[in-house]
Specification:
The chain has 368 residues and is an alpha/beta fold. The protein has 14 helices and 17 strands. Among the domains are: 81 residues, Rossmann fold, CATH 3.40.50; 148 residues, Vaccinia Virus protein VP39 (Rossmann fold, 3-Layer(aba) Sandwich), CATH 3.40.50.150. A seven-stranded mixed sheet has the order 9-8-7-14-15-17-16, sandwiched between helices. α10 links the parallel β8 and β9. The protein is globular and about 60 Å long.
């Protein structure tokens, strides 16, 4: 794969232009699936495409006739009435049954839609292929096992090579995000820092994976609504007196900053709401840290910079999301290598779509 990277970049076709071509070919644009994935992609669609979404569709009768992000939801039977005139983008994680249904019903154009590939397409259009290729090759060399290389190569084939096989991402998907058995060892005295704690979902996974044995948890969530759910979830967990929740964002400096709120993705640096952000180095101020997880919608590099003293001094395990921007596929592993030159790096992917790719950094004393 390393030798193919430059060829893929040289022959790359714009994903944005590909999607735009589909929308120009058909009378109606339809998104099938009115859940979280649909909610999270609408803003990026409106930002990058000059074509509105005409209809959405869902298998749940409770959604029929209602509006989602300003778009009316059709029933599958209603959708069949316009099947020859519509391009369908499936916005469901477990998409195979929907693809099979739509194919059997004779729909002419059924597609997945990759939110972050729309962003990547614009970025790659503006950047030099040689620079991007060299960065990709440098990052790929950092990973310590064949599975990491498979994950890396598959993402490159989809996001840069234009791979259209819908089974690409399912082929590298695996469970247990952040706490992968035989990869992320957990001790009974972990001091876990959850950055982007959402409603406490990862806290619940951590306490399950650790069997409720840990020394301390610090959980950070910037969105007030999510934070209220997080605090409630934390209070219901084992050893809740050791769990400290913070309605703060983590950044490279302390300041007030704009953010956009979402049901499951809150983006720092954009939007109309204001929140307070701090560097991890200042708020934890030398407290013990053994494991840091970050899923903060593209703010990971800022947060890593603001945590660099903690990371350099304490050598924690890391689980850092790298899927929010194509450049993070190389920038985050390369920066982690600067901070932790002896850690082993791994790459794993945890959904059937482009979401939830994680770079893991494990201290060398932990045998894999």
């Amino acid at each position: 794969m390393p030798d193919e990277i430059f060829e893929l970049l040289e022959n790359r076709k714009s994903y944005k232009k590909k999607i735009k071509g589909l929308t120009e070919k058909y009378k109606y644009v339809v998104f099938y699936g009115c859940g979280t994935i649909y909610d999270n992609i609408v803003d990026k669609w409106l930002e990058h495409m000059d074509r509105p979404i005409d209809y959405c569709c869902d298998s749940d009768p409770k959604k029929w006739g209602k509006y989602f992000n300003g778009v009316v939801c059709l029933s599958p039977e209603e959708l069949k009435n316009i099947k020859s005139d519509c391009v369908v983008f499936v916005t469901i994680s477990f998409f195979s049954p929907i693809f099979n249904y739509l194919r059997s019903a004779g729909f002419p154009s059924i597609n997945l839609i990759y939110k972050y590939d729309l962003v990547a397409s614009a970025f790659l259009d503006e950047h030099d292929n040689e620079i991007v290729g060299n960065q990709l090759k440098s990052a790929r060399r950092l990973f310590s096992d064949a599975r990491s290389h498979q994950v890396f190569d598959t993402i490159v084939k989809r996001a840069i090579g234009g791979g259209e096989d819908i089974n690409l991402m399912p082929s590298i998907c695996e469970p247990n995000q952040y706490f992968v058995p035989n990869l992320m060892p957990l001790s009974d005295d972990e001091c876990y820092v959850d950055i982007g704690a959402y409603d406490g979902d990862t806290l619940r996974h951590f306490t399950s994976a650790s069997q409720g044995k840990f020394e301390k948890i610090h959980a950070f969530e910037i969105d007030p609504d999510n934070y209220r759910q997080l605090a409630k979830s934390a209070s219901d967990l084992p050893n809740s007196d050791r769990i400290h929740t913070h309605n703060l964002g983590i950044w490279d400096t302390e300041c007030d900053i704009n953010f956009s709120e979402g049901k499951s993705d809150t983006t720092i640096g954009y939007g109309k709401k204001i929140a307070h952000v701090v560097p991890l180095d200042s708020i934890l101020a030398g407290q013990k840290v053994t494991l840091i997880k970050m899923d903060i919608e593209g703010a990971e590099l800022h947060a890593l910079s603001g945590a660099q003293n903690t990371i350099r001094k304490q050598n924690p395990k890391l689980a850092i999301c790298v899927y929010h921007h194509i450049s993070h596929l190389w920038k985050i592993p390369l920066y982690i290598r600067e901070l932790l030159p002896d850690h082993k790096l791994y790459l794993r992917h945890h959904t059937n779509l482009e979401y939830e790719t994680v770079c893991y950094a494990i201290p060398p004393e932990h045998k894999q």
